[in-house]
Amino acid sequence: MAEAPRSSPPTGKVEPYVPASKSLPELTIGVLLLGAILSVVLGGANAYLGMFAGMTVSASVPAAVISMGILRALRTGNILQNNAVQTAAASGEGLASGVIFTLPAMVILNKWQHFSYLETTLIAAFGGILGVLFTIPLRRALIIDQPLQFPEGVATAEVLKVGAEGGGGLRVLVLSAVIGAVVKIGATGLKLWAETVRFGGWLSGGTATASAATAAPATGAAAASSGVPFYFGINASPALLSVGYIVGFNVASVIFAGSVLNRWIAVPLFSVFGDASAIMTTNNADTHITLAQALQGASALDAADLYHKFVTRYLGVGGMLVGGVWSLYKLRKSLLGGITAGLEAYKKRSAGSHEAIVRTEHDMPMNIILILIVASVIPLFFIFWHFTGSAWVSVVMAVVMVIAGFLFSAVASYMAGLVGSSNNPVSGITISTILVSALLLLALGLKTPAGPIAAVLIGGVVCCAAAIGGDNLQDLKCGQLVGSTPWKQQVMQILGVVVAAFLMAPVLNLLNDAYTIG
Fold first, then answer.
1. How many domains does the structure of the chain reveal?
2. Is residue 322 in some structural domain?
3. N or C: less crowded end of the chain, CB within 10 Å?
4. Mean pLDDT computed over every residue of the chain
5. Residue 325: inside a domain
6. Strand pairing partners for 201?
7. Are residues 300 and 335 in the same domain?
8. Same domain membership, residue 288 and residue 210
9. Residues 266 and 313: beta-carbon distance below 8 Å
10. What distance separates the 2 farthest-apart alpha carbons in the chain?
11. CB burial of residue 315 (10 Å; 0-12, 13-18, 19+)
């Protein structure tokens, strides 16, 4: 039997930097204000980056460094307060990822001319809050009982420890940050060298002229390009190299195997046996054309990218979904144990028990979690009703949203533990959510123009929840290593989500006015 992917060192029982027996100030007015400000700033910056470049990055390490600098300048703060600040800031960044990959569809579908402030804010805020709440019961299963590395969480903890201790470790941290910044700026800013190196060629046939492609017989996708493309590429991003170093050889090998399966097996197979004329794409003028038409005259690199973008990437989406669900199924005892432990603790407190809970294991009480979940679902139900005009359909949408929200938040959390938040396939989770939602709504008979809108709304809430879920577990992993109190981190996560949600609509409207979405 093959050994499961495992990172080193395993998670399990750890000795935190601040022992559970020691209590330091964590939630102060200054920490709350600084966390809220950084959440807004980094959330807005990541919304811009995501809309402009199509990707976002984890804000945990930058937020930790900024927090340490500010609190040190004020001659106050400790490692737990710095962690609380970066927890709130990371929530703002994660929320931006969930919003920008879904709600622009409302503009593209011409439902909105501009992003509605009230509706965008409510979807972002309550979707993000649900992401925090859904993943609280997962903390024990994914952080304590599983050997998942959570690379950004580990990296952030090391940064916080070095900042607290100073000395040689701080010099190494600063040196590595400078090297990474120089490499990144030189590659993507000054364009002095290429960060990504790619090669392409034709395994058989191939053409670069539209006339030759048109003359090819229509037998399989390769007919459109007259060849089977081969692709090889390397991305030497400092961030990716660092994540690979943290997650270890086993996990990195699994990621590489997925790339090989996609680019070297799935793409050639589809190019030979697939029907490119049955797949719709869009060209640079946003005109709908078939994949076969898009392949005409394409180079080997372009052909391989087209196959990946419109066909084979969905293999990864399905594999991620099935693998994540299967992993959660194997963790069902731990998941149920975490939920049961929370309910038992609530019952004991209600019965007047004064049994002490270890500080570093003290999550938000289960009764509070359930109340907040219900309080978050109710306003979302009315938003659904506003758009669909049907109370029955809105009830079904709310139920689907809760089930899908928990499921995909858990999958995103598990994936974040494997490959990190920056590499978490939120777009794949979004695609899965919208596909499942659309099929369910179609089965319920919602075939009116409100159908696509309903699917996007569910996708928006679930995507916000999933994006926050991955960041949530990274922060709780960092908290486990430095010795934070979980429920206080969870309060900071909710704070970061709420304040960042108020900025999402203005940022998206600025970008829409400047660049015109869609």
1. 2
2. no
3. N
4. 80
5. no
6. 230
7. no
8. yes
9. no
10. 82
11. middle
How many other C-beta atoms lie within 10 A of the C-beta of residue 198?
13
- With b meaning 16 or more CB within 10 Å and e meaning fewer, what string describes 157-169? bbbbebbbeeeee
- 116 sits in the region (left: phi over 0; alpha: psi -120 to 50; else beta) called beta
| Tens-digit pLDDT profile for residues 442-478 | 776 666 667 778 888 888 898 889 889 888 888 999 9
How far is it, in rounded angstroms, from Cα 28 to Cα 77?
10
pTM of the full structure: 0.76
Q: Which residue has the higher pLDDT, 320 or 118?
A: 118
Query: Among all chains, which residue has been given the structure tokens 């879904």?
Result: 102
> What are the start-end ranges of the H helices in 167-265?
168-184, 210-215, 222-225, 238-260
Record the tokens describing residue 515, joined without a space. Answer: 């660049």
Highest mean pLDDT, choosing among 67-76, 345-354, 382-391, 491-500: 491-500
Alpha-carbon distance values, 262 to 1, 196, 252, 370 (Å) = 24, 18, 16, 41
Write down the pLDDT at residue 132: 93
Asked if 150 and 33 sit in the same domain, the reply is: yes
In whole angstroms, give the CA distance from residue 131 to residue 368.
15
**Structural element, H or E, at residue 201:** strand 196-205
Q: What tokens does 468 get?
A: 């926050």
User: Helices in 222-353 by DSSP H: which ranges?
Assistant: 222-225, 238-260, 267-273, 291-295, 300-307, 313-330, 332-350
Give 197's strand partners: 234
Q: How many helices (H) and strands (E) does the chain have?
A: 21, 4
The arithmetic mean of pLDDT across residues 132-142, rounded, is 86
46 CB-near residues (< 8 Å, 6+ apart):
56, 57, 59, 92, 93, 96, 97
Domain assignment present for residue 305? The answer is yes
Do 215 and 152 share a domain, yes or no?
A: no
Angstrom distance (rounded) from CA 426 to CA 434: 12
Of 459, 437, 433, whose CA–CA distance to 446 is shortest?
A: 437
Does residue 296 sit in the same domain as residue 363?
no
Claim to verify: residue 131 and residue 57 sit in the same structural domain? yes
383-426 residue pLDDT tens: 988 888 888 888 888 988 898 888 888 888 888 887 776 666 67
Three-state DSSP class for residue 474? helix
The DSSP letter of residue 278 is G
Q: Which residue has the higher pLDDT, 170 or 197?
A: 197
| Cβ contact 457:448 at 8 Å | no
The DSSP element (H or E) to which 125 belongs, if any, is helix 117-135
Burial 403-413 (b: 16+ CB within 10 A, else e): ebbbbbbbbbb
206/471: higher pLDDT: 471
The answer to whether the CB of 154 falls within 8 A of the CB of 478 is yes
Q: What residue type is 92 in one-letter code?
A: G
Residue-range definition of the domain harbouring residue 83: 29-162+331-515
**Residues near 8 by beta carbon (within 8 Å), at least 6 away in sequence:** 149, 248
User: Which pLDDT belongs to residue 121?
Assistant: 93
